[in-house]
Amino acid sequence: MLLGVPDTTSAFPGVDRLGADCRIDPTVTVMRFGERSDVVQLADAVSLYAQTRLVVGDVTADPCVGIRIGARTIVNVGAYLSGEGGLEIGEDVLIGPHAKLLSAGHAIDEGDVVIARNRITRARIVVEDGAWIGAGAMVLEGVRIGRGAVVAAGALVRQDVPAGMVAAGMPATLVRARRLDASGGSPASSASQASGWRRWLGRR
């Protein structure tokens, strides 16, 4: 018996394609409207825990709209996943409780004083294989989280996090590279990690 773990299901309202052995808590919700059949896709053995919210809104608003989650990824309780600007999550990713991935927002300049009347901004978020988004972290539109990268709990990520790096803080900054033993298989070479550091320093 598994306590606190969602049961496996072969179908779920709002999910267009569901792989084998997916676990989705009955309190998970999908917010969408309009007609498209390829918008929300989960690969094999994805787990979505209680009170997770998937948001795609108007699925006909833009071709980028959609959420794709790779095999064996776990999304913990209370997470908020926005696919309004496109959201791609790789395999074996950990999304911590109450993390928020926000691929869309509202334009705040050159428009109406009432924010709700302004255009929607959209930019795809990509989380590559084996990454970990910590509890309560927030990832903003257009960000790429590299393979095996770590976003610390409570971080606010506005820039890409290179593979194998750890980002923390509000706003997040790179704090170090992960330390892996020889059997762990480094998610990034030392050269690519150094290049990642230089890119960050050049954008600050």
UniProtKB/TrEMBL annotation:
Transmembrane segments: none annotated. GO terms for molecular function: acyltransferase activity. Gene3D superfamilies: Hexapeptide repeat proteins. Residues 182-204 are annotated as: Disordered. Keywords: Acyltransferase, Repeat, Transferase. InterPro entries: Hexapep (IPR001451), Hexapep_transf_CS (IPR018357), Hexapeptide_acetyltransf (IPR051159), Trimer_LpxA-like_sf (IPR011004). It comes from the Bacteria. Residues 182-196 have a biased composition (Low complexity). This is Acetyltransferase. It comes from Simplicispira suum. The lineage of its organism: Bacteria, Pseudomonadati, Pseudomonadota, Betaproteobacteria, Burkholderiales.
